Amino acid sequence: MSQENIELIKVWVATALVFAVGTLVMLYVILLLRRYGGDLSLIGNLPLASPPGMVPLLADPRLFVILVAAHVSASGVALLLASQTIDLALLIAAKAMTVLIVALLGCWAGQTAYEQLTDGAAISTAGLLPMAIALAAFAALSTILSMASLRALGNLRFLVAIAAILAAPMILNAV
């Protein structure tokens, strides 16, 4: 495993922890504001969202499927061209998506901890599979399926490019 991949994994762990703790703290602040701040004029007027309703919005699998499909299609087009700028943009986008998905997983962990501590609710993993699949897809697109790796295939990259362009619409049907 390269040093770059090790650093990316460290970023994922730090992001997951920070967002899990941040979400947990935010939900407890909302709980405290509801319980003790409702009579205060400034806080009483705040529209405090219902915490259990937040994460299903974040884990909507359609968004991840669209982004993976668009990235695969863009990668196919980029393989037909010769641009280091486009290659770098796709690499940065894939790595950024992995960090974003890990942040969402951290939010899920924070909300799950909150629900466990306040209500003793059962852990629901319903929305995690699409996020995990998207994380694996973007992790692959930023490492073993990166533009640099695919360009190393020589002229075979053109076949891979056509396959990627044709596969993108099929990925959209995954939802």
What would you note in describing this structure?
- The protein is mainly α.
- The protein is 76% helix and 0% strand.
- It has helices at 3-36, 41-44, 55-58, 61-80, 84-118, 128-141, 147-151, 156-172.
- The chain is elongated, with a radius of gyration of 20 Å.
- It starts with a helix and ends with a helix.
- The relative contact order is 0.17.
Please specify the SSE layout and strand pairing.
Layout: H1 3-36, H2 41-44, H3 55-58, H4 61-80, H5 84-118, H6 128-141, H7 147-151, H8 156-172
Helix pairs in contact: 1-5, 4-5, 4-6, 4-8, 5-6
- Classify the beta-strand content into a percent band: under 5%
Rough outline: elongated
Percent range of helical residues: over 70%
User: What integer is the average pLDDT?
Assistant: 84
Number of strands: 0
Describe the main β-sheet briefly: none
Number of helices: 8
How large, in whole angstroms, is the Cα Rg? 20 Å
Structure classification: mainly alpha
